[in-house]
What we know:
mainly alpha, 0% strand, elongated
Amino acid sequence: MNLFDETFIRNYCEDSFGEFVSDVCVRLKRNNMSYRSAQEKMEKLQCDFPKLRKIIEDNESEELTKEEAEALGKYLRSADDARWEEAKELFLMGMRESYYLFKLLRIIKK
Length: 110
């Protein structure tokens, strides 16, 4: 795959930014072990502690046991890890987009 085969400028418009970010997350889940691991931990914690799913996905209030509260803490740490991987990838993609745009504008000649 050419580095610029899929760029925001070429394949998306402003209205599709959410789709662009979603595509990044799909690629991360396929190709980034740290991201995949964080996502898997989050899913396992939600399966093991059903109240977490109610809190996180359904925005419900629940009383938690100490064990459930600790699981929620683990979930939040894993979510932070996943967001960090997303932020790094989006930053790098932004740099790639800048380079592509600069080439289109002939600011970079090569």
